[in-house]
Structure formats: C-alpha cells, structure tokens
Amino acid sequence: MNSEEIKSRVKEINESIKSLQDELTKIKSECSHDNYHVGFYSWRVGVVDVVKICDYCSENIGLPSKKEVDKFLEEEKKWK
Length: 80
Ligand SMILES: [Zn+2]
Known about the structure:
This protein has 2 domains: 1-30; 32-80, no CATH class. It is 51% helix and 21% strand. It is built from 2 helices and 2 strands, in the order αββα. A hairpin with a 2-residue loop joins strand 1 and strand 2. The chain starts with a helix and ends with a helix.
C-alpha cells in the first residue's frame, strides 16, 4: 500500500468502527438485560471490578449483591 492507500483505508476502517460502535450502543440500549452473570469488568487498564454482565449484550448492568460477589469469587477459586 502506498501512503494515499493507507490514508484512505484507515479512514474507511475508522468509519466502520464508529458505525459498529453506534450499532452496539443502540443494541445495548434496547436490550432488556433479562439474564446476567457475575463477572470481571475492566473500566480501564489496571482497574477490574466484579459486576453484573448481561448474558445477551455483555453490557455492565450494575453492581451485584455481596452474596453474588462471594459466590462468584468462590467459583473463581476453584479454577485456580
Ligand atoms: Zn443486555
């Protein structure tokens, strides 16, 4: 690829990413989040929380109860 091709392809890819992110946001906003599991969620590099994650759209839908966190951490231990 020459520099013009790179420039044009990068622009195309960035537009696709934006369009897919918009679709993802729309799908997540329409999801009823009827089922969830407790799992690790990373807000940013180095920060990991235990949260409720929707089974369908993978959205972080809030903090689990203490009981749910304890159960999740107990399950995690079994795999180590
Ligand atoms: Zn959902």
